[in-house]
Amino acid sequence: MKRNIFFLIGAAVVLDLLTVLVVNVPKQVFAQAPPAGDLVIYGQNVGDSLAPNWTAFGTTGNIIVVETAQFYRGTHSIRYQETAQYEMLQLSSPTPINLAQYQYLIFYAKATNPGQRYRVHLLGAPNPAVAPEARQTVGTALEFDLFGGIPSTTTWTAYSMPVPSFGAGTNQIFGIGIQEINGGAQPALYLDEISFSGAPAPAVSL
After folding, report:
1. Can you say whether the dihedral through the CA atoms of 159, 165, 171, 173 is positive or negative?
2. How far apart are CA 59 and CA 188, in angstroms?
3. Which pLDDT tens digit goes with each residue over 8-39?
4. Span 140-196, pLDDT tens digits
């Protein structure tokens, strides 16, 4: 009987210790995966890069599609540094996108310097007058400022842009364009986890 009592007391002490250890484990928060059913343009779910057959194009500027110095989820982001005013990073697919399937364009951005401002265009037909890879813009451009704010330099900013707000006038597009609106060359902008989605972007997690 005494042995059974000592055994029960010892087991209770071990359980208390385990409870303390579990309770005191620091909470870890990880960047969330995009919702199921998203059309992922860039992100961890498509190999931590652009989705297959998508291309990145800019008439000027320096584009790095697999930047490793900054990333929100996974280990890569897109780094785009514009070298002339109002230039645009275009991400496009040869296959048309049916906008009727999605409610939002979502993405995460991080700036190098305070005050970097941008807008997003939807892309339509080819624009060979600019370059073979270039595409024309359609609808109304939406500014970062109105859908998440000017991108931070210290943390990632989440953006959720309602598809109807673009006023594309068509359900068929071929990509998106990111354009600076400060009117001059800009330091690097980092972009990650870009998708067309049925839901807003998950909140930023550290």
Report:
1. negative
2. 16
3. 334 443 334 333 333 333 333 335 555 557 99
4. 999 999 999 999 999 999 999 999 999 998 889 999 999 999 998 899 999 999 999
8 A C-beta contact, residue 191 and residue 109: yes
Q: Label residues 162-175 b or e (16+ Cβ within 10 Å = b).
A: ebeebebeeeebbb
**In the chain, count of helices (H) and strands (E)?**
1, 12
Residue 115 to residues 1, 180, 184, Cα–Cα distance (Å): 75, 11, 12
Q: How far apart are CA 47 and CA 37, in angstroms?
A: 17
Strands 118-126 and 104-111: unpaired
Instruction: From 103, 173, 167, select the one nearest 140 (Cα to Cα).
Output: 167
Sign of torsion over alpha carbons 95, 100, 106, 112: positive
The 10s digit of each residue's pLDDT in 116-136 is 999 999 999 998 888 888 899
Banded model confidence at residue 111, pLDDT cuts 50, 70, 90: very high
The letter for the amino acid at 23 is V
Residue that has been written with the tokens 């986890």 in this structure: 193
